[in-house]
């Protein structure tokens, strides 16, 4: 059990050249949390909630393969909605907290020895990989600010979407098409709940002093721009090196997709912020 815990890793990738400000007045950063893989011998049967999620994902994908009709239209529109969801939410909700260090064990150890961060007698250290150039603010300080903002925000929106579910009941009288408003509200509530739980969990790990900032030569290469690159709203995050990042750390293709989406959103936010500032100066 102890060895896999040490393979949990957090990656911090700044997304804007001028460190464009987010609503929390901190730089835009894409955080990806790589959780330990479950050993086959420990995996056992798939939990009910994961089977439900797999069924939902397969059903959604099948709608995208439809030859027309309302299923394809719903899938097409739904994909556009997904593209607009904040990359921070998507990154947090993908964290499976059940695979990380048990907070209860870390808390008991802290009570005995406040300077110790171990689980089962094995040191628990979670590297926070970041490019060397990410130094202002310090990566760990930024992560703290990020989690302190995202946690309460996702908790609030979880309750808002949960409260909207009862109002979808009238749509159940339509017998042909599923109650799409209900499923949408339930999905948004679930997404914000997952993001809140992840933010709360990561914040606890930071408080237990197990997250350690770690400069990464691989990420430094990711931030090396070609000589032909021109200055724009993005920091020198070289998209051509993203496959190297994915392969070096054995990340999934989904991570590459989410990183690309985060880059696009950061660019739009930076442009919007620049336009707003220019309007204020007039």
UniProtKB/TrEMBL annotation:
Keyword Membrane in the entry? The reply is: yes
Q: Which InterPro entries match?
A: Mit_KHE1
* Protein name per its UniProtKB record: Mitochondrial K+-H+ exchange-related-domain-containing protein
Q: What domain of life does the native source organism fall in?
A: Eukaryota
Which Pfam family, an example, fits this chain?
Mit_KHE1
Q: Which organism is it from?
A: Botryobasidium botryosum (strain FD-172 SS1)
GO-annotated biological processes: potassium ion transport; proton transmembrane transport
Answer whether the UniProt record assigns the keyword Nucleotidyltransferase to this protein.
no
Q: Which residues form a coiled coil?
A: none
GO CC: one term?
mitochondrial inner membrane
Keywords from the UniProt entry? Membrane, Transmembrane, Transmembrane helix
């Amino acid at each position: 059990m102890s060895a896999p815990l040490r393979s949990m890793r957090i990656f911090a990738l700044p997304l804007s050249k001028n460190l464009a400000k987010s609503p929390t007045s901190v730089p835009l950063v894409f955080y990806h949390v790589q959780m330990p893989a479950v050993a086959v011998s420990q995996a056992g049967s798939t939990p009910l909630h994961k089977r439900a999620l797999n069924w939902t994902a397969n059903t959604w994908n099948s709608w995208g393969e439809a030859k027309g009709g309302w299923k394809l239209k719903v899938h097409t529109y739904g994909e556009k909605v997904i593209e607009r969801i904040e990359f921070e939410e998507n990154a947090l909700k993908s964290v499976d907290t059940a695979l990380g260090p048990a907070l209860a064990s870390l808390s008991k150890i802290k009570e005995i020895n406040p300077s110790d961060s171990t689980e089962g007698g094995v040191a628990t250290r979670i590297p926070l990989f970041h490019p060397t150039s990410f130094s202002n603010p310090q990566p760990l300080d930024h992560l703290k600010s990020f989690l302190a903002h995202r946690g309460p925000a996702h908790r609030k929106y979880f309750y808002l979407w949960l409260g909207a579910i009862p109002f979808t009941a009238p749509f159940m009288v339509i017998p042909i098409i599923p109650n799409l408003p209900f499923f949408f509200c339930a999905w948004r509530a679930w997404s914000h709940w997952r993001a809140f739980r992840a933010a709360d969990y990561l914040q606890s790990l930071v408080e237990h002093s197990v997250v350690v900032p770690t400069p990464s030569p691989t990420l430094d290469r990711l931030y090396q721009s070609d000589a032909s690159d021109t200055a724009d709203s993005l920091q020198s995050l070289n998209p051509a090196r993203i496959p190297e990042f994915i392969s070096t750390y054995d990340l999934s293709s989904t991570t590459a997709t989410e990183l690309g989406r985060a880059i696009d959103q950061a660019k739009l936010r930076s442009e919007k912020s620049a336009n707003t500032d220019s309007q204020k100066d007039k």
